[in-house]
Amino acid sequence: MCGIIGIVGHSEVNQALYDGLTVLQHRGQDAAGIMTCDDDGKFFLRKDNGLVKDVFHTRHMIRLKGKMGIGHIRYPTAGCSTSAESQPFYVNSPFGIALAHNGNLTNTKVLKDELFQTDRRHLNTDSDSEVLLNVLAHELQNSSKLTPLPEDIFKAVAQVHRRCKGAYAAVAMISGVGVMAFRDPYGIRPAVIGKRETAQGTEYVVASESVAVDILDYELVRDIEPGECVFIDRKGNFYSQQCADNPIKSPCIFEYVYFARPDSMMDGISVHKSRMRMGTKLAHKIKREFPDHDIDVVIPIPDTSRSAALQLSYDLGVVYREGFIKNRYIGRTFIMPGQTMRKKSVRQKLNAIDLEFRGKNVLLVDDSIVRGTTSQQIVQMARDAGANKVYLASAAPPVRFPNVYGIDMPSANEFVAHDRSVEEISKELGVDWLVYQDLPDLVSAINKKSDVERFDTSCFDGEYITGDIDANYLYYIDAMRNDLSKQTSDKSNAVIELHNN
Ligand SMILES: O=P(O)(O)OC[C@H]1O[C@H](OP(=O)(O)OP(=O)(O)O)[C@H](O)[C@@H]1O
Ligand SMILES: NC(=O)CC[C@H](N)C(=O)O
Ligand SMILES: [Mg+2]
Question: In which pathway does it act (predicted)?
Fold first, then answer.
């Protein structure tokens, strides 16, 4: 789940891009990058593996000159995790274009071959984002003008929609011209627009989540619509157009379950409120299925589950206690690369306050259970802390299908729920009772009153919204990106770290 940001301002944007990326850090911890463009159309790039605070030092920031720029936070779902595949990517022709992408293309291989056949375009990485950029570049090539006009940009994005399959929320910068941003026709990945008035004129920001708009003191205007492209020229003039033939708003449901920050508004929905409603739905299910429960205390598994757990405890009428303390210097474990690191980090990240567990029947609440990495260790920690009984509630249904749209969950057999009943999962996790959210309840908890027609719920029900995913593709990504092949490719991938610029 990467994070993207783009700004067109009337003063230097390097610091604002940095600040915006810091509040998008929860969307990816592997790499970060910023590219700016000065008034002469010269690009300045700094990107590398690592967290935002580690990638950018003063010596980099002072060289990121210009009043427009884009930024990216990476959590790899394609290619390998060397810094050569960090973003933004860049092509010199036509015009000089940089791009940052959140999502995952599902026809990357076909497109890559096409780009060489038609354009002799050599792509040096295995990143799908570099393919997306080169398809955009190819389509912009058709405009014969020296400076592309908004209609040329919209025509090119319409072609991108026709050629690219999968999920993309992307921001791109054209040297000396401006910044554009567009979402795939299903709106699987999020993107919002912010603006603010200054003495020199209007400034705009586009970002994955509204938190970035908030902390940069812009006013949240709206979401970019599925299929829509917005373009802000270097003077701050705003243009937009729907570029898809048949847009259907169907955002990824996992954004609301886990990825997004609770303080974000996404497609008109408060993430925090939707998580609270998940807690309410789950409390009702517990009352139905375990009416004479003997739960003494509700305990969240920090961080993401806390909104749901607090509301669940309120609706269940059981006391809520923060029985696990999170190490604020350890990041999100689910998006860490490889199972070894995830396992090790869960124990470093969370520790139990024994007195909250000793002799009690505890209900642990998590937002989701995917590989079971967190739950397996947490349950043992609760028992070691003296819990009498350990129950576990998941605010999301069992994850049983791979994600192909930008969440690195390519292998079903890595999921604890794969080929297991709830009873069998409960045994595997070592809990005394396990309850999952039902999918209809999850959908209604999120979609209270918005114009979302449906969600991409593929990781729960195997219904892939883009309609082009078959068993062959799932087999292919499993082989390419299961934990073992990723480790091998990252070790043996003798990329000479050739950045694409
Ligand atoms: O079953 P698993 O494979 O462990 O995945 C699910 C867990 O991973 C995530 O936590 P994470 O530590 O990533 O982030 P958080 O601090 O935002 O909860 C999520 O919130 C669950 O706790
Ligand atoms: N999580 C994402 O959005 C990943 C973006 C892109 N597919 C990459 O691997 O770099
Ligand atoms: Mg968690």
Answer: Purine metabolism; IMP biosynthesis via de novo pathway; N(1)-(5-phospho-D-ribosyl)glycinamide from 5-phospho-alpha-D-ribose 1-diphosphate: step 1/2
The verdict on pTM exceeding 0.90 is: yes
Distance 434 CA to ligand 1 centre (A): 17
303 lines ligand 1 (CB under 6 A): yes
Quote the CA–CA distance of 137 and 45 in Å, as a whole number: 19
Q: How many CB atoms lie within 10 A of CB 367?
A: 27
d(CA 369, CA 483): 18
Closest residue by Cα to atom 10, ligand 2, is 76
* Cα-based distances in Å from 81 to 6, 23, 75, 195: 23, 22, 9, 34
Q: Is 367 labeled as ligand-binding?
A: yes
CA distance 489 to 219: 43
Atom 20 (ligand 1): residue with closest C-alpha? 304
- Domain limits, CATH 3.40.50.2020, in the chain: 273-451
Question: Which residues of the chain are in CATH 3.60.20.10 domains?
Answer: 3-248
Q: How far is CA 84 from CA 32, 49, 59, 335, 469, in A?
A: 11, 9, 21, 19, 28
Domain 3-248 class, CATH top level: alpha beta
Which atom from ligand 2 is nearest to the alpha carbon of 1?
Answer: 1
Q: Which residues pair with 133 in a beta bridge?
A: none
Tell me: is residue 315 an annotated ligand-binding position: no
Mean pLDDT value across residues 20-43 = 97
The contacts of residue 435 (CB under 8 Å, 6+ apart) are 282, 285, 286, 289, 290, 391, 392, 393, 394, 422
**What is the share, in percent, of the chain residues with pLDDT greater than 90?**
90
Question: Mean pLDDT over residues 122-148, rounded?
Answer: 93
Does residue 247 have a cis peptide bond before it, meaning omega lies within 30 degrees of 0? Answer: no
For 330-348, the pLDDT digits (tens) are: 999 999 998 999 999 999 9
333 annotated as belonging to a binding site for a ligand: no
- The Cα-based distances of 174 to 48, 89, 146, 222 in angstroms read 22, 12, 12, 23
Which CATH number describes the domain made up of 273-451? 3.40.50.2020
Residue 46, pLDDT above cutoff 50: yes
Contact call for residues 300 and 279 (beta carbons, < 8 A):
no
Per-residue pLDDT at 489 exceeds 70: no
Among 184, 204, 188, smallest CA distance to 196 is for 204
pLDDT of residue 193: 98
- CA 341–ligand 2 middle distance (angstroms): 20
- The catalytic residues are 2
Q: How far is CA 378 from the centre of its chain?
A: 25
Q: What is the mean pLDDT of residues 71-93?
A: 93
The Å distance, Cα 145 to ligand 2 centre, comes to: 32
184 lines ligand 1 (CB under 6 A): no
For residue 20, the Cα-to-chain-centroid distance in whole angstroms is 15
Q: Tell me: the pLDDT tens digits for 346-383? A: 999 999 999 999 999 999 999 999 999 999 999 999 99
